[in-house]
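DM from R.C. (forwarded with permission)

"hey, sorry to bug you on a friday — could you get me a structure for this? deadline for the figure draft is monday and I only need the backbone to look sensible"
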Amino acid sequence: MRRRLTFALASLLTLVLLVLTLLSSVTHWLPRLAGVWLPVGTRIALDASPRWQQGALRFPAVRYLVADCQLAGLQQLSLGYQHQRWQAHAQRLTLDTACLSRLPAANNSASAPRSLAQWQALLPSADVVIDRLIVNPYQSWAGALRLTLDPDAQRLNYQGDNLRLQADLQGQRLALRQLTLQTPTLSEPVSLHGSLTLTEFANGVPESGELGGDFTLAQVPHPLRFTLAWQQQQGRLVLQTPQDAEPLVDLPWQVTPQQIRIDGGRWRWPWAAQPLAGGVALAFSHWQQGLDATELSGRLNMLTQGRGGKGNIVLTLGPGRLSLTDSQLPLRLTGESKLAALQFYASLPGTLKGSLLNPRLHIAPGALLRMRGRLLSTLEVDEARWPLAGVSLSASGINGRLQAILSAHDTQKGRFTLHLDGRADEFWPDRGRWAWRYWGNGYLAPLDAKWDVQGTGNWQDSALTLATLSTGFDRLRYGMTTVNQPRLRLAQPLVWQREAEQAAFHGELTLDAGATRFDSGGYLPPSRLQLALKGSDPAHFLLNGSLQAQSIGPVRVNGRWDGERLRGQAWWPQQSLTVFQPLLSPDLKMKITAGTLRAQVAFSAAEQQGFTVGGHWVVQNGALWMPDNSIEGVDFSLPFRLHASRWSLGTHGPVSLRIKSINNQFLIHDVTAQLQGSWPWQESEPLTLSNVSLALLGGTLSLQQLRLPQRQPAVIRLRAISLSELITALKPKQFAMSGRINGELPLWLDNSPWLVKDGWIANSGSLTLRLDKQMADAITQNNIAAGAALDWLRYMEISRSWATLNLNAIGDLTMQAEVNGTGRFSQRERRVNLNYRHQENLFQLWRSLRFGDNLQSWVEQNAALPSSKDSKHEN
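My reply, with the result:
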């Protein structure tokens, strides 16, 4: 008995040791054991020994490798058996599709394949749960997977952020209870549901079925509904809106063991600028050998109609293949697309390569896209060319050389040609790199100017940089002004950082111009405008700079742009007026000798409101010299506002003018005037000149108010004007006068054929007239009758003089005068009455200024003696 007990204990101890040995070496023998059933070249690797915990065998990590590539990786895997069901649970399962290409080819077995029912009979009762299933490189489709397996029914439940799937398989009938997809291209998720009947061996197209679903596109105003129905070897896919009976897509298809064909397919798109439509014909050959062996061929076309007639563009596919690992599908896009205003011409051969889930399009040599037509309302594109040879396109970006050539013209504004040449490396907006250079030239007809442009730039990830820029004109000719060789350059690169967390926009611009010449003869010296820009993006930035033309300026400028409106201010610090001497033509023979100027303005510009500027200009103690006269002591204050081509003068007080003196043939001093209102004026916004006053010839000239538009005359008042000072200034040799006169001249500048209507001039006190002796003697010798009368005008004391004046808009002056006085001759006195009517063009008279000759002619023709009863003798 004792011997049997000892043997039993020894056997138990040996068994325990054997189990412990197997468990301690499981990482070595279990992968080798599993390798018996695995494909050649594949293996399982355990990173740590499993352990038994809570009724389940737990593996920290299990990896499935193809050569040295990890096809699948399980983390925290547990296997257990409860309630007569196997339980499998893993925290994460990661699959790498890049390793699929390394799997060995399947061995052809001579044995008959198992049917779907036979495979289902082999399934154990099990529950499989994976908390996170990730398929690289498609992490956006990750989710949680739950499988419920029984021989008579199987159920799948997958829940992810962008993909949800619930399906039941019972025998050959598959019920798709829910399939929901969410992609960035769709504004709403796609929902799909339906049922289908699988073939007996589940190795072909289901025998019958019907699937339906709904989804929404941002470009389509209505929800879309699609249905897929088939029976045996043929079926139809239809996409339409609930409101329209005519489908958007209609694809009838047929299936044979050798080929899947779509013949007579149709599509249309009614929401484009013009309705689009076309046909579809596709063939998938050898489809039963798997996706990698399936050969694709076919064509799709699009019909258009617009400017230039009808167009047809055709996409030819294959023959080639699509693969999850290495696609090779030749394609070619050819034909013409005629839109409402544009015409496109394409010849684009290429090849689709790489994984079907992440394909890359390689464009072959000879690829060219051209365009012509009307791009804007007045801009006609003669030709735009995009050579695309060698360019590749994929989800990671554009690669290759990018070129563009644009030639266009505007019947009113001129013509131009632009070139762009650069290279892209895995570029999408805000990702990758695109570097370029550009150049071009043109002619701007309104300004009679030739221009050119050149520069470089790049787009690196989220930073968009204009590195260099040089653009300018040979000259700018506008109105009476010519600007020589203006040119805009970058002093510092323009950089736009587009990343939201680090948004920034900055750079510096310099505009240089040669002398700006005026047809009047003056010129503005070479000038420079410097601007620094700083903000968050091109729609939101501040500007700061200055404008200077040699000694003129600098004018300080700052402002801001908010995407809709440009606002800013400019300051002109006080400086001498003498710096503006170049603005005056040498032919004027004027010289600015003194004075200062300062100014401040604010401006605003927007597309809807236009350009608005307002501010204040101040000139102090200005002085101007000319050969025949000079002006001194000019003080000028101009508050203004300009909007919609209308000036508002005197916005914060009237425009004020003060002149100390004007030295001409006679001295004018103490000049004052005020101006307020709108230009151009209108009845609701008049322009008013007021408080005009000046001292001259010992008296004053004043104008109380002139309102435009004019409804009543503006009266110019003359007070105590000295005739002796006037005669001294005019220096006539034929006569002399003394005394003072008054007058009122009703002035019309608007709404009247008259300039002066019913004006008058009268003496203020006694007047004295003396005729030159030589002139009087000459008249007496030539005309005895006139000489006898003229003798009493050689010296005349005028007690009363009165003249009425009328002057029309073309300068015709009519003057009716009456003079009463006493003439002295040979120590005798005689009463003299003169009635005078004179007509002459005043504008011609001013040009001649021959007052003496006119007076002599008048006296010869009009002198007459009064009756004897008016005469008086004095010894």
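R.C.: lifesaver. The CA atoms of residues 449 and 515 lie 16 Å apart.
me: no worries. The chain has eight helices and 56 strands.
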